[in-house]
Amino acid sequence: MKTWCVTAVLLLCVGISVGRQLQQGSTPSSGGNTATAQATATATASVGGGQIYAIDPWSLGKSYAPLTVAASSRIRFNWNSRHGVYRIPSGSCPSSFSPGNGIIALAPASNGGSFTTPPLSPGVYWYACPVPTHCPSGMIFKVTVV
């Protein structure tokens, strides 16, 4: 009877811990199974008629939902490991991140950093991480400015 009770309490504690990790957006370790957390941009400040939206963290393991913002808004990307920010011409990851043909290096890859766009004009913008395999692994982000 004691063994059964101890086992039940341990399973309950593990379940609560995993539930809290999922609510906080982190991925619990599960022996090789991984999940992608949905990331959202958060408005952090108002500047010159537009908001600043933070992508924090800009990292692997997240899925970035498209964002619609007002003209003059800015996007701030923050990262803690090897990432960068390039503007790309469409929602397709380029085979190479060499500037040209609509690819613009905004923040070259670095080990930690931050980049804030200038105020955005109406249009559609695509941003991606230039580190190999990062864009096709989910580090691509669409912003529509109205």
Automatic annotation (TrEMBL):
Keyword terms of this UniProt record: Copper, Metal-binding, Signal
Gene3D superfamilies, sorted: Cupredoxins - blue copper proteins
Signal peptide: 1-19
SUPFAM superfamilies: Cupredoxins
InterPro entries, per the entry: BlueCu_1_BS (IPR028871), Cupredoxin (IPR008972)
Keyword Metal-binding tagged: yes
PROSITE patterns for the chain: COPPER_BLUE (PS00196)
A single MF term (Gene Ontology): metal ion binding
Record carries keyword ATP-binding: no
Protein name: Phytocyanin domain-containing protein
Species this protein is from: Coccomyxa subellipsoidea (strain C-169) (Green microalga)
